[in-house]
Amino acid sequence: MSKKTEIEKLQVEIERLKKELKKKKKYGLVWEDKPEEVVEMCKEKLPVLKEVKGKEIITDKDKPVNLLIEGDNYHALSVLNYTHAKKVDVIYIDPPYNTGARDWKYNNDYVDINDAFRHSKWLSMMNNRLILAKNLLKPNGVLICAIDENEHANLGVLLEGLFTGREIHSVVIVHNPRGVQGKNFSYCHDYAYFVFPSDGKVYIQSKSRDSVLIEELRDHGGNSLRTDAKNCFYPFLCKDNKIIGVGNIPDKGFHPRAKNIKRQSGIIEIWPIDRNGIERKWVFAKDTVNSILDKLEIRKIVSGGIDIFRTKDEQKYRTVWIDPKYDASTYGSKVVADILGNNIFSFPKSLYTVEDCINAVVKNKKDALILDFFAGSGTTGHAIIDINKKDGGNRKFILGTNNEDNNGNGLKIATDICYPRIKKVIEGYENLKGEKVEGLGGNLKYFKTDFVDAEPTDKNKIKLTEQATEMLCIKEGTFEKVLDQKNFKIFKNTNHYTGIIFDQVAIPNFKRAIKEIEGKFSIYIFSLGDETFDEEFKDIKQKVQLSPIPEVILRVYRRIFK
Description:
Layout: H1 3-23, H2 37-40, E1 45-51, E2 57-58, E3 66-70, H3 73-83, E4 88-93, E5 101-106, E6 109-112, H4 118-134, E7 137-147, H5 152-162, E8 166-174, E9 189-197, E10 207-216, E11 236-239, E12 242-246, E13 260-262, E14 268-270, H6 286-289, E15 296-300, E16 306-315, E17 320-321, H7 329-340, H8 351-362, E18 369-372, H9 379-391, E19 396-401, H10 413-427, E20 428-430, E21 436-438, E22 443-453, H11 458-467, H12 469-476, E23 480-484, E24 488-492, E25 496-501, H13 507-514, E26 520-526, E27 544-549, H14 551-560
Parallel strand pairs: 3-19, 3-22, 4-7, 4-18, 8-17, 18-19, 25-26, 26-27
Antiparallel strand pairs: 1-22, 2-22, 5-6, 7-9, 8-9, 10-16, 11-12, 11-14, 13-14, 15-16, 20-21, 23-24, 24-25
Helix pairs in contact: 3-4, 3-12, 4-5, 8-9, 9-10
């Protein structure tokens, strides 16, 4: 090979490397991507859902139906990418914290502190699931992710890369004021990331308080002197312990002789002067204070005299949450023990931590849909049921969890912990003291992940169509069976119907069956291709929406499993 040829090859390689470098992130998180068996499996097997009929709980047919999915959450999220794309208001998750204490598995092996790829495996696992979860959020949906110090920093950068164009805020929650054992620091808190659109709208609602907040109207912080805002220095006029008006802003050369000045008429002037005689200012300017007079009141103060105070029924959530109700032992472990028995599940979240996280977003959305695909003991489901009971809401939840052995105690997470907890919360139970606890009501359907061969043969397409019934009912929210024929089925909810036709020759019989039924239909018709059969339904096209199966499902799977 000539020297000229070698130089030319080298130049080609240099140009190739330049192009590769341009593709690399200029900023972000880089880790050793570790292939995950449950992800690779989807190249050969397509996930579906099958209902476990004996676990259905229905206490009120007029209320929404909640879902519990048993199986690997990657497979559950894959199905939900078809059934619930852009439908979820809030995703709340409490993933494994990767403490190094063998508290989670990767490819069926526990990850411990000696694993050289411990953080890479965790990031690979989270990245795979968050990519799928992102597709489920509504455009105005919010992701909430609990985490502790082990992966807090890594998760933050991962979220920045995945959720570009969204605001990401980290909240500190004191969940164990006693602290835990540690070599240098005794940790007493963990975190919750809130991720929501950065469009200027309010996504975190004001926090209702159990008791009304009372605060002085006089400014205390920086820039609180009279000279900092002349329009905020004026007297309130009071009589008989009531505010009757607001006085004028004085000239800069005028100085009140005291905080409280009583006129001959009996009217008392209250000026924003502190206990040291320093002229401060009110929080509000004179031209705006009239709009909040109904929130103001007169109170005696310790230093003598009276002052103006403001009442606030609500306040914005702070970024540090300190409250006894967030104690994970008292309101997490003991709550689960009271429902299921002692030593059932390790380290469940406080019920009220989860309630406050979710309520911060859905307080005013009483029909919101909340997803938790790391459901564990079912605290999120319990929290939603409790929130609905308190304010009469109809929020729904979808829980996803595996059914692995729970820390070697012989109990399976889905069947022996999560499901029994939700069932007892709905129907009622007897606590450890032998007292009867009334059920909170609600409905639940239990599903398991199953699989169909992915090779795109006619046989596999037929099998996927046969196995898709539950998925279609979940997508449409129609669980009540109306008609069950060999070649077609009909389901409904209170205002909508779903028809599934397994053989196109059954279309005439199906049309006769729905002729007298009033209401809209979503109709899914088996087709080896992508035919929608519009011609066959043109006489009732205002009544139906047609989709070919399994193509509508395969189209989603091709995108996410590419």
